[in-house]
Amino acid sequence: MISKDGGSPQQIPSKDQSQSDPTWSPDGNKLAFGYVDTANPGMFVDVFELKTHQVSHLPGSQGIFGPRWSPDGHYIVGESSDMTKWMLFDVQTLQWRQLLTGLGQLGYIAWSPDSAYVYFDNLVATKEPGFFRLRIKDAKLERIADLKDFRAFPSQWGAGSWTGLGPGETPLLVRDISTQEIYALDLQLP
């Protein structure tokens, strides 16, 4: 980790285990990340406190990885180890609740700027792939786009690739149009 003011990189304290999917709290004081304990098999969400340099397991996070902190700082959403279920952690009450299940393997998570929705895809291993949004307050699910005929660019994790949000909550997807096509673009800068 490198301070926003610059300086030398510092390693976040760890037990030399696998960590992935870091996400900063909106205030920049905490970093949540997925943690895989190979000595005692299991996944957790760990939280690093920037001021104290302490790392602790997020309570009740066993079997959950891929945390994403909401922009308002109120929630952390995480994915089950089989990638078929999402859990929502309320940072104030320290309680988890199941947010979503039953859509096959779930893809990348993107919060709406107002923290009211979570956007995602289910491109991997499903007959009804789509891009969805899920309302946090009542878990209402909406299909934003049908991706049945969408040629997703294969990622290192399988058929699914990165998805996210652009300005105005516009879905962003990586499309596979082949590596055989070559394009030349003229770039004119002011």
Describe this structure in words.
By secondary structure, the protein is an all-beta fold. The chain has one domain (18-164): TolB, C-terminal domain (Neuraminidase), CATH 2.120.10.30. 0% of the residues lie in helices and 42% in strands. The chain has no helices and 14 strands. It has strands at 18-24, 30-37, 42-49, 54-57, 64-69, 75-80, 85-90, 95-101, 110-111, 117-121, 130-135, 141-146, 163-166, 170-173. Strands 1-2-3-4 form a 4-stranded antiparallel β-sheet, with no helix packed on it. Strands 5-6-7-8 form a 4-stranded antiparallel β-sheet, with no helix packed on it. A hairpin with a 4-residue loop joins strand 2 and strand 3 (42-49). The radius of gyration is 18 Å and the shape is globular. The protein starts with 17 loop residues before the first strand and ends in a 17-residue tail after the last strand. The model has no long low-confidence stretch (mean pLDDT 82).
> What fold name stands as the CATH topology?
Neuraminidase
The main pleated sheet reads as: 4 strands, antiparallel
Find the CATH superfamily: TolB, C-terminal domain
**Approximately how much helix is present in the residues?**
under 10%
Strands of the biggest beta sheet: in what spatial order?
Answer: 1-2-3-4
- How many domains make up the 3D coordinates? 1
DSSP strand content:
35-45%
Structural class: mainly beta
CATH architecture: 6 Propeller
Secondary-structure element pattern, one letter each: EEEEEEEEEEEEEE
Query: What gyration radius follows from the Cα positions, in whole Å?
Result: 18 Å
> Given the structure, what is the number of helices?
0
Q: For the terminal residues, how far apart are their CA atoms?
A: 36 Å
CATH class: Mainly Beta
pLDDT average, as an integer? 82
| Rough outline | globular
DSSP strand tally: 14
